[in-house]
Amino acid sequence: MDEACIRKNEQSIPSFWLKSVYAQNKNAVEQSMAPDDVLFVAESKIVQEAASTHDCIIVGRCADFVLDGQPGVIRVFCCAGMETARQRCVQEYGLPADKAESEIRRVNRKRMTHYEYYTGRKWGDPHHYDLVVNTSHVSIEEACRMVGDLYRHI
Q: What are the chain's domains?
């Protein structure tokens, strides 16, 4: 698929029937699927392939759901308070300070809707993760060390 199409559609709401089709048959016929549904299935296959062939870190892509039950998988959810997230968006992404909070809320709404639609799970529910890290209190570097330590001990 075209990269621009992926960027535009990867967190949008897909057609309703894919959720049940994916749950019942991961090898669903893709010709009859909407482009964003095809994208979800394609990304899921890539995630499964990457995780089955070598050690890797996968950010997003509903990977905690897609890899559910796979041995050796560590599921991590990172969150931050609004002020920390706003500062990070201004400093790292160059968003204007007065627009950062609304952009964070918009992106998180899309993530939540996408995740909950495809997985049937609540986005950010700590019960679906092995580690939840609040990066308002732990630096990104320390969070990486925590994940590495957890990985070495599984």
A: 1-62 (no CATH), 74-154 (3.40.50.300)
In the structure encoding, which two tokens stand for residue 131, read together? 């580690």
Averages of pLDDT over each 10 residues, the chain, 154 residues? 61 49 51 77 93 92 94 95 96 95 96 93 95 95 94 89
Neighbours of 147 (CB within 10 A): 17
Per-residue burial over 58-81, b = 16 or more CB atoms within 10 Å of its CB, e = otherwise: beebbbbbbbeeeeeebebbbebe
For residue 29, give every residue at least 6 positions away whose Cβ sits within 8 Å of its Cβ, in sequence order, or none. none
112 conformational bin, left if phi > 0, alpha if psi -120 to 50, beta if neither: alpha
Residues 79, 135 contacting (CB under 8 angstroms): yes
